[in-house]
Amino acid sequence: MTKMLEETLDPASPAEWRSLGALGSRMVEDMVEHLASVRDRKVWQSPSGAARLALKGGAPEEPEGVARAYEDFLQHVRPFPTGNLHPRFYGWVMANGTPVAMLAEMLAAGMNFHLGGFDCAGALVEEQVIAWLKEMLGLPKATSGLLVSGGSIANLVGLVVARNAKAPVDVREEGLVAAPRMRVYASTETHSCVRKALEILGLGRASLCAVPVDGAFRVDVSALRRAIAEDRRLGYLPICVVGNAGTVNSGAVDDLDALAAVAEEEKLWFHVDGALGGPVALSPAHRSLVAGMERADSLAVDLHKWMHMPYEVGCVFVRDAEQHRSTFAHSPEYLAQMPRGLACRREMFSDLGVQLSRGFRALKVWMSIKAYGVGVFRRLIDQNIAQARLLGDLVEAEPELELMAPVSLNVVCFRYVGDRRRTAEELDALNREVLCRLHESGVVVPSYTTLHGRYCLRACITSHRSRSEDVAVLVREALRHGRALGARARASA
Ligand SMILES: Cc1ncc(COP(=O)(O)O)c(C=O)c1O
Question: Is 314's C-beta closer than 6 angstroms to any atom of ligand 1?
């Protein structure tokens, strides 16, 4: 037999393994130092010309070596983050991550479990995490849950179950060819991923009934009732009500108890998007804000938002475990349950969602909860809500700023209005420029949205690193840039 030249990606000798380990130790030390010193750096800066150049071009055919790859990472990647590690990052809904979860990610990749549902300790860890989360969120014990990549997929999975449960046809067998026009109800403030999910589900955007909101951006429940009645009159098939536990724009929480009651009366599925505000249920002081969430038939909660985990991890819960399973389960012969051995588990995670091959995203959650304890996660919810209220108060105390929405959770929307003599269009343009300058300064990073048709700055405080003085910096800097722009406009008038 001729000897084949066989290769592997492992180091070739014990000495090479040791030097890889030494480099790994340096990586860990460097990243720990990077996290420890994050406050001393700019929140964000645009990737340099050199970085943009270095990060173009084809893949090397010949090895450059891990040391060189790491040096490139240090030079061209690490200095140009999105900024969400920083205590003064308040954009969109992004969390800091935790140092423990960072280390857990390395362990998870090292173990490289396949979490489709094989009999391994990783599966037990994921089951334990799901059980912990149900208890922490006050959900019924029999609820089924699955870790997914984030809120968009958690909402998608919940809505697939809703559609299949409520469609008058067997969607898995027949598809939607023979189905009537189904309708899903959600407030105008609902995250775009719900609309995207309905498109993916083949229900079409026309299946979404966007229900108006009240002055606090909460769904108008009477308008919802009217919309359902009108749809029935037109021959449509109402199937699902979506409630928001924290809207992306302003953090508004719909009256979830009222929505649960409507869904019950109308025999509709009740899905809650708790991607942002779901973890509020952890806090004894604030869980009443999301009361009714536990009545959902399906619930999406993000853990890479207000549970502080690094990307990606979210969770979907479905009250009727059998409905959940029967929506996704497939048992081809190559995955059939065996009496013993690696494939002996009855519950396959892959029967609860889209993915078959799934990674070990449970480990970072499990290690963080074990290392820090649940109590601190509860207190961080309270801390961020207190910081948001402080920010709201600071804004309201400044005559040159205008608060654009009530502060209900951790989101504060406001804008610079100066002496209030500018037109609405001028104010929109001015605040857009304030936003760009805030980002470019690297001092503090909010994001933006439009409320009441007006552009505004938006701070979402999901940071465990943020302190009260940090949110005060946002007010100071917004005023500084607003005033400078106002003065420049007056000088050129
Ligand atoms: C309320 C809400 N729902 C859903 C999502 C989508 O979640 P993800 O970005 O994790 O897919 C977001 C994201 O910000 C959100 O704020």
Answer: yes
